[in-house]
Amino acid sequence: MLALLLVAPGAAQTYRFRVYGADDGLGNLASTCLAQDGEGYLWAGSLNGLYRYDGNKFKRFGASQGLFGNRVVSLTVTPEGSLWVGTESGVSLWRFGRFHSVHFDQDIHLGSPTSLAVEPRQGAVWVATSKGIYRIENDSTRPENLRASLQTQFPRGAYNGIAFGPDGSIWATISETVLRWKNGALQEGIKLGIPKDNWAAIQADGLGKIWVRSLNRLVSLKPGDGRFLSEDAGLPDAEIPALGLDQKGEVVVPTILGLARRIGNKWQILGRRSGLPMDSVSSALFDREGSPWIGTNGGGVARWLGFGAWEAWTAPDWMENDAIWAIAEDRSGAIWIGSNTGVLHLPPNYGTDAAPKKYFDIRAPVHALAIGRDNDLWIGTPHQGLFRCEIASSACRLYGAGSGLNVTDINRLIVDSDGVLWVTTGSGAYSAKLDALPLQFAKVTLLGTVSADHISTFTRDNRGKILIWSGDTLWSQTPGGWRRIKIAGLTRDPQIEHIIMDRSGTVWVSYLNNLGVTSLSGILSSSPIVQHYNLSNGLRSDFVYALASDAQGRVFVGTDVGIDMFQGGQWTHYGMAEGLIWNDLNTSALLSDSRGGLWVGTSHGLSRFQPDREYRSTARPVPIITAVRVLGRDQPLSGPIECRIATAISPFAFQRCRLRMSSRCNSSTAFLA
Predict the structure, then answer these.
(1) Which overall architecture, per CATH, does domain 29-250 show?
(2) DSSP string for residues in 528-560
(3) What is the pTM of this model?
């Protein structure tokens, strides 16, 4: 066991999870299994009852509502959306608002999350029990007379799990082995190379591979192969042997140290350090909207927010400090991060097991970064001044008054396509040509009339040249000097805080006085098109900390409540509920990288967003009735509505909802007289 723990790789990132517990109606926090029915309801089996989530709250069902006991072992859903529930002592079908019991010819016991499985071709439900394998004819239109028949092709015995292969084979785990029924013949697992163990869970993945799990082992069999192979190198033990499938049909494995996902040829373990409420995981389900739900052995149920698109690093697990102020990408693809305690580094081949590491001996807040031309990094601090650090040797040099830079509060750094370093400070802007040695900074003036003290902000245009915004004038760098563009009246206020140019050449600005953002298309022409955005037409906040754009033409606005993305004329908001690690961004801490990702610095960690990996569900939410009220009295949603209509205008009301798991159920109420 010790060897397994030493080699099991954990994710070096953290993720956002919404944890559901007692306050959400989940009375028992020891989840055993998860399922989503055809209407979209999420069901969570537990050690003490079955819980249904309607987008707002969990509701408990137990023996008093018709289940065979309160300890739920297994859940499965048939192709038409019917939910089947296996408890320790029986099987029930949820239909027409209540549970219908299945009749067995003897007392049975169920013990595995894979005790129930659906036959792919005919939709019948199969059950692995303590007395043998049973089959239930799935006539859900007549649930009052459900019977299970013993399948005599399998010998009697205590079975744990049942599964179906893509070739029509039927697999079952029993005692110390696995049995396969195929083409009228029964074959034992020992002939397929499976070792003796107390095999419990069994699952076919999307490619038809058969996976079998015990408390501490995992094996698989590819279609067409003759022998099972061991898959448990680096895999921790299980508290309850279970298996699940992700949105691609690939297997995921609950363990005592977290949920295991296969990344390449290794298992990545997602546990408490990755954002889950606890390490021990019992079950996993990917809903129709692409969100993973993870059941834990005592910590409730967690929904993964922003799965596949968002990841993050926070202190103290992955970084020594949470406050991120600056982010840059060098030519090799490495990421450089400015924090309150210095510079952090992610190598070019960063992946799910990489964490930012301290780089350079600079022990000060870093608020600005720029990549130099000679494998070096320029670092701006708010109190100690400007540093140049060689990446290869980690040697750093401070530039100050001797180089013409008479200030120490560095706000922003840009290196343009001509190899000029531009620096903004609290006392003006400076520039220096990097290949002119010794390096000498000069204060920026424009046409001899505007000093750097009045320069609001600058950015690089699509040619790599500099754009400077100053008062009511935009200055565009040209081969011969500067082009002056009057912009008086185009913006809401002359005090500009941030400026960027997107792929199309549109200039975006934000304001010092919290007025949202403005886009100026064709700014270099005689008739630019101006559009203002704020709380009234797309933004979630007018308080803007940072702007960025990417190669796909998307524009990102970082605010004190998250990020607003502008794409195709539409705004989309991303906050903590969507996967961002923290809503409060830091000034200028946005970077669009060369891989299509967006890096976000916040006051509580670093996030990376990959918009192209965001899952967009094509499943339409099913309208459901969530409440009925007659004469002011709430009515049950199953069985007849008992009421006496006193007059012709007695009120009848029902509440309906389009059920989605990614957001609270948006209900509407209709009143009938």
Answers:
(1) 7 Propeller (2.130)
(2) -EEEEESTTTT-S-S-EEEEEE-TTS-EEEEET
(3) 0.88
